[in-house]
User: What shape does this take?
Amino acid sequence: MNYQEAYGKLEKYGQLHVLKYYEELCDEEKEALLSQIEQADFEVLALCKERETLNPRGKIEPIGVMQLSEIEAKREEYTQIGLDAIRAGKVGAVLLAGGMGTRLGSEEPKGIYNIGLTKDVFIFQRLIENLMDVVRQAGAWIPLYVMTSDKNHDMTVSFFEEKRYFGYSADYVTFFMQDMAPVSDFEGKVYMEAKNRISVSPNGSGGWFLSMMKCGVADKLRKAGVEWLNVFAVDNVLQRIADPCFVGATIATGSASGAKVVAKNAPDERVGAMCLEDGRPSIVEYYDMTPELMEAKNEQGDPAYHFGVILNYLFQVKDLEEIEAKKLPLHIVEKQIPYLDEKGELVRPEKPNGYKFEQLVLDMIHEVDSCLPYEVVREKEFAPIKNQTGIDSVESARELCRKNGIEL
Ligand code: UTP
Assistant: This one.
């Protein structure tokens, strides 16, 4: 894109301030800025004015959940079906590690965080160890796709190489980068992080398959015969990945997708609750949980929205292209964004000063025809690390690891 074209695009979206320092830049910097302008999607920025009304909810109703007792009764059968699928190379795992982990406050990728006390125990290491359990059980490697972002890709890849993939086969690990989206002030004016760089942030957990498609990874895995992808978050150190029983239960029940869920520890716990929305599977986020939904009972008289998702989903590859084509809802989230001030100096704000624009993986569930909510024991499988201390923190995750006999 040349200067004229960039000017035209910025003018159209009211973002001409992006070129404020253009004349001060060297040729290389000019080129970098023009290419960033070419790639950026400025259209979404205007949507921040409609933030409150952007994603209206449909009719919310309870959904049936496969609970622990039902799973126990069929554990052997489901596990066998899952192991068969894994051995046939039909199951891959996708680690979402492109997030910024701002709440944890570490400059490094979250997976590099060391939760060990007497020895090194990195978050990535915990995940690989868990996946290795299944590899050993199945006697087959499971392809692992790791999503990074522009901000943490190089560090993530070098860390895996330095640690020799924690014993995983490097042949079965593929890294791919997610897309970035511009971040703006509360009026939708994009921030600059340097004179030649627009401020950008990873575009959320929902664009993972689109990013896999763009870099050719999706095509390769389809050709290799992968039919199911188990997508999961980086920050749950008890995460069970490609869990054969979960895979088997999803296949055996003829479900188009699966979602691991835990019994919520309080009606207002900050996890999304599984439900039906306008008759389709869906997830109602904690900030959309009204008092009526929190108190609602199902036909059995139990709390109707009692099961929360833990960012561990199974999708069929054949559905994913269609899902991505449908354009997932956009979530506009307040954020602290470092920016260049009037004098061209970088300011690091202490409170939110703008918006990031994200799509979320949980919205993909609403796009599939059916979903099996599959209950897991939360003390055994749910130890998310979002913060340093308190709820969902390094401290609480360490405690849960100890309870599960994991040496730290
Ligand atoms: P979170 O919602 O916890 O976001 O991500 P985050 O960016 O990691 O952390 P905060 O909010 O800044 O503290 C849930 C999962 O989705 C991944 C994260 O890496 C994590 O595994 N994710 C999130 C991405 O891969 N890309 C994104 O753009 C956002």
User: Anything to note?
Assistant: The longest helix spans residues 68-87. Residues 96-103, 110, 147, 178, 202-205, 233-235, 311, 386 surround uridine 5'-triphosphate (CB under 6 Å).
